[in-house]
Amino acid sequence: MNHAPGSLFLSLELQICLAVLLDLLFGDPRKVPHPVQIIGAAALRFEKIFRRRFRHEKRAGAFTWFLTICLTGAVVLFMLWGSLLLHPAAFAAVSAVILYTTVAARGLSRHCMDVYRALSRGDLAEARKKLSLIVSRDTSELDEAAVIRSTVESLAENLSDGVIAPLFYAVLGGPAAAMIYKAMSTMDSMFGYTTPEYIEFGYVSAKADDAANYLPARLTVLILAAAAVFTGEDGRRALTVVRKDAKKHASPNSGFPEAAMAGSLGLRFGGTDSYFGKSETKPVIGEDLRPVDVSLILRARRMLWVSLVLFLAVSLGARFGLGLLYGRFFLPLGLTEADLPG
Fold first, then answer.
1. First-to-last CA distance in the chain?
2. Alpha-carbon distance 337 to 328, whole Å?
3. Residues with Cβ < 8 Å from 283, sequence gap 6 or more?
4. How far apart are CA 225 and CA 307, in angstroms?
5. From 160, 219, 247, 314, which residue has the greatest number of CB atoms within 10 Å?
6. Which residues in the chain belong to E strands, given as ranges?
7. Residue 95's closest CA among 15, 184, 181?
């Protein structure tokens, strides 16, 4: 098949691969403003405006959510359009950088390794401190086993919404879809609480995030089960624990990757924890089939990286295959991509 000049730079597959490579090389730069911070600032500004404008908090929250999503999508599309006018290579670079900011594989791995290193040194206090950066619960009284469980549990949940989900939407809709997903996740983190201040205002943000994560969470189960097979863990038990325990979780989505990880490693999640100064008992997911030791963090981290590779191989392979079918069946009689409108 003949390709139009510069068509390689317009390949979404290439842009996604470049984005993942950037994440592997640089992670989340701590001294550079992240788009999530800009999205959060915009959402807070809209919150102030619409809380004053509407007495009905759910309506104010809905307008805040809608305008933040629209602004996010519009800014990304404008950046892509402007870069495409310059050169296809500029478009590829801008697209890859935008996608890169939505993926958090290296950052997630680094946080888990920080906990692992502290525990390996016997510094439980430092491990609790590092864990507090990735979980919302109170970590100050956790023993070593609880720190390990919480680290692996957080890795499983964040694998779904911080790695697989943004890449899922990137594969489906490119940088704009991935960044819109990130905006939805950000607003759920900001407003999706059951506290008096946000139970009404954050209703739309919470429900929209639940809907956006429905498919990625369940896809993560299949990816984790496959990753378990490749890493010597128990993929069959992962699926068994998902069927038995995933729906016990208060979240309609989080229980699925957590149950898959718990089953793969023979680990138990759940029990009583402290959130914002209040004790909360969560349903038990999975069971301990062996002593809980720090090596579980390394095994879960290995599953993170294998899951990333498997998802890219399957999703990008599917896109490439569909592209070949498109060329075979819809570009007949010598017609090339260069002859298509646009």
1. 18
2. 12
3. 245, 248, 249, 270
4. 9
5. 160
6. 268-275, 278-286
7. 15
Low-confidence ranges of the chain (pLDDT < 50): 1-3, 5, 274-276, 330-337, 339-342
Angle (deg, nearest 10), helices 165-191 and 295-330: 120
Residue 237's identity, in one-letter code, is R
Tokens of 341: 């409108």
Whole-angstrom Cα distance, residue 64 to residue 44? 8
Q: Is the dihedral of CA 173, 44, 255, 102 positive or negative?
A: positive
What digits encode the pLDDT tens for the residues 50-74? Answer: 999 998 999 999 999 999 999 999 9
| pLDDT at position 194 | 80
Which pair of structure tokens corresponds to residue 319?
């896109």
The amino acid that residue 212 corresponds to is A
Judge contact between 47 and 198, C-beta under 8 A.
no
Q: Residues, the chain, total? A: 342
With H, G, I as helix, E, B as strand and everything else as coil, classify residue 271. Answer: strand
Residue written as token pair 């000049």: 5
| Dist CA 296 CA 300 (whole Å) | 6
CB atoms within 10 A of CB 280: 12
Three-class SS of 65-124: HHHHHHHHHHHHHHHHHHHHHHCHHHHHHHHHHHHHCCCCHHHHHHHHHHHHHHHHCCCH
Helix H or strand E encompassing 33: none
> Cα–Cα–Cα angle for 48, 52, 58, nearest 5°?
85
User: Please, what's the b/e burial string for 232-259 (b: 16 or more CB within 10 A of its CB; e: otherwise)?
Assistant: ebbbebbbebbeebbeebeeebbbbbbb
- As given in the structure block, the two tokens for residue 44 are 């807070």
- Find residue 280's DSSP bridge partners: 273
